[in-house]
Design a protein that fits this description.
The chain is of the alpha/beta class. Helices cover 32% and strands 18% of the residues. The protein is globular, with a radius of gyration of 25 Å. Bound molecules: beta-D-galactopyranose (GAL).
Length: 633
């Protein structure tokens, strides 16, 4: 399959007389895809039950005739105002019990069955009308599930659906009481109808209650999405995608992804560095106009896993965005670099967001490939350059990694529910280990938590997985390579109790966590060989071989065969040493990367990405600031 480029377009925002020219310009630029439709419900169904498809027919026709392939989005992220008259209780409710208002988007509650019915109705109409349209080549369901903090809703609809979910899971209130430990503080329930949502409690709610609510809410996203995929598949053979986001763990993307053909995500590197990174001020200054050198790559690898190999960028930042605390202009070259980096990680397509900058409403300050006056903005030319370069490059190919990293959404909920230390954040923990692998120049495959086969991987990392699945435990027991687990791996039962035998309870490893402690960032626990544990450390006892010690005399790394346990949150110095050692022992070739330079190999090419604001040298080649270099392997 050829790698391709595309753009997001909103025909309903522009006079129809402009469409043909826009389409011709897109095709002329070398774009293959145009994504449309995902917010246009008020134009598709202006009044309840009165549909108007004529304009969309013409838009799809105009784009298709210009040679573009259409990604058609279902409009369910933006229910129109009349929906509230029909279903006044469909709005999501926040944790404080406040009903979310109309006037932006994503105001619906995933659990509202009436709203699901409305979604099913409009998706059915769309699927019937466009399911066999020759130009509609991919579907997108909804838009960015979870965006604007919308997975958890504390509405009546959610309450009733949660009770049903609990009744199905536990069958009797007694079983639920046992699983949650409700004898503690007299929280026992006599009926499922007595159970509330875990908000507005006096002090923290029972963590088992919270965890079940998180699992329920995640299941609701998957169920909501499945309503649409079931309908689309009845009428169309085109693959179905959803556009996920960066650093969003509120629902299990693997579960939702199981009903989709393609995982895609929306990459806004500079916005993300400004609004969701804990990096140091120096780091943020250095990469101000480029974005974090590892953040995009992590998500490329994650969504490759969620898409079971098939993944896209559905929205690529083209210039300054409007929603981060600060919105700098990208360095010249970054719109090209970001696209090439996605392709090097196996993306099939990269679509820029958006074609023309909107002159009205919320996103007037968000750049597009074109300015509001239709003149080309800088990323227009960069997209054209990438389109030209793609012509001579091989087909989609992610290559194969020696190293794998397990990512588990439920663990993000677990450690949010019970951080036991203000800074303990699952994403940050996993990302710190991912970064360390990238500093060693390694390709990384991300794996789901129920992976049953690790063969082919020489090294597997699984930090902070709250409950190891039977599948993964079995795979680890027979794994021929090395594995590094911990901290906090296998520390909870599925019911969120403390397991006995005590954690980590790993196959063949005689080691028990007898004490954990969380620490402020300025109280590191130094390791004898250099570096430290920061924020979190565990004291272990048992007969397992001790590979490294803390300066205060506790095991820092333990080993039983290839299985290793890391007894704390290792800083960069410690991680670099520990991971280099494991790679050396496994015969994995590493190359220490200079700051801001990253590399990835596919089966045919090795690529380098210079995220620095100045040139760097690699293999005798000078890569300019924001430059990309590749050579055949
Ligand atoms: C995404 C969203 C788009 C647009 C964009 C702006 O989160 O899917 O519709 O709002 O952000 O950066």
């Amino acid at each position: 399959m050829k790698r391709t480029l595309g753009v997001c377009y909103y025909p309903e925002h522009w006079p129809e007389t402009q469409w043909a020219e826009d389409a011709a310009r897109m095709a002329g630029l070398g774009l293959t895809w145009v994504r449309i439709g995902e917010f246009a419900w008020s134009r598709m169904e202006p009044e309840p039950g009165r549909f108007d498809w004529d304009w969309l027919d013409r838009a799809i026709d105009t784009l298709g005739r210009a040679g573009l392939k259409v990604v058609l989005g279902t409009p369910t992220a933006t229910p129109p105002r009349w929906m509230l008259d029909k279903h006044p209780d469909m709005l999501a409710v926040d944790e404080q019990g406040r009903t979310r208002g109309f006037g932006s988007r994503r105001h619906y509650c995933f659990s509202h069955r009436g709203y699901r019915g409305e979604c099913a109705a409009i998706v059915t109409r769309m699927a019937e009308r466009y399911g066999k349209n020759p130009y509609v080549a991919v579907w997108q369901t909804d838009n960015e599930y979870a965006c604007h903090n919308t997975v958890l809703s504390y509405s009546d609809a959610a309450l009733h659906a949660f009770r049903d979910w609990l009744a199905q899971k536990y069958q009797s209130p007694q079983a639920l009481n046992r699983a949650w430990g409700n004898v503690f503080w007299s929280m026992e329930y006599a009926s499922f109808n007595d159970i509330g949502l875990p908000n507005l409690t006096v002090t923290e709610a029972n963590p088992a209650h919270v965890m079940d609510f998180r699992r329920f809410a995640s299941d609701e996203v998957a169920a909501f999405n499945r309503v649409q995929t079931d309908i689309l598949r009845k009428h169309s053979v085109a693959p179905i995608a959803h556009n996920y986001m960066g650093r969003v763990t509120d629902f299990d993307h693997f579960a939702t992804g199981a009903d989709l053909d393609i995982a895609s995500w929306d990459a806004y590197p500079i916005g993300f560095l400004s609004d969701r990174s804990e990096a140091s001020p120096e780091h943020k200054r250095r990469f101000l106009r480029q974005g974090d050198p590892d953040f995009q790559a992590f998500h490329h690898d994650l969504y490759r896993a969620v898409g079971r190999g098939r993944w896209w960028i559905m929205e690529q930042q083209p210039g300054p965005v409007n929603w981060a605390p600060y919105n700098p202009d990208p360095l010249p070259g970054m719109a090209r670099l970001w696209a090439w980096e996605a392709f090097a990680h196996g993306a099939e397509a990269v679509c820029y967001f958006r074609w023309r900058q909107a002159p009205f409403a919320q996103e007037t300050m968000h750049a597009g490939l074109l300015r509001p006056d239709s003149a080309a903005a800088p990323a227009f030319h960069e997209a054209g350059q990438v389109a030209g370069e793609l012509a001579s490059m091989p087909d989609v190919d992610a290559g194969r990694a020696d190293v794998a990293l397990v990512f588990d959404y439920a663990s993000a909920w677990a450690w949010e529910t019970q951080p036991q230390g203000r800074d303990f954040d699952y994403f940050r923990l996993v990302f710190s280990q991912y970064r360390a692998l990238r500093r060693l120049g390694l390709n990384v495959d991300i794996l789901p938590p129920d992976v049953a086969d690790l063969s082919g991987y020489k090294l597997v990392l699984a930090p902070g997985v709250a409950t190891l699945s039977d599948a993964l435990l079995g795979a680890l027991a027979s794994h021929k390579g090395a594995a590094l687990l911990g901290p906090r791996t296998n520390a909870k039962t599925v019911d969120f109790s403390t397991p006995v035998p005590l954690p980590p309870n790993l196959p063949g490893m005689d080691a028990v966590v007898m004490r954990v402690e969380s620490l402020p960032p300025d109280a590191p626990v130094p390791l004898v060989q250099g570096g430290a544990f920061t924020g979190w450390r565990e004291k272990l006892e048992g007969g397992a071989e001790v590979v490294e010690m803390t300066e205060d005399g506790f095991p820092a790394v333990l080993r039983a065969g290839g299985l290793h346990y890391l007894a704390g949150w290792a800083d960069d110095t410690a991680l670099d040493r520990i991971l280099s050692g494991l790679c050396a022992a496994q015969g994995i070739g590493v190359q220490s990367m200079p700051v801001g330079l990253r590399t990835r190999a596919t089966a045919t090419h090795r690529y380098w990405f210079n995220y620095n604001p100045e040139a760097v040298q690699v293999e005798g080649v000078t890569i300019p600031a924001a430059g990309v270099h590749w050579r055949a392997i």
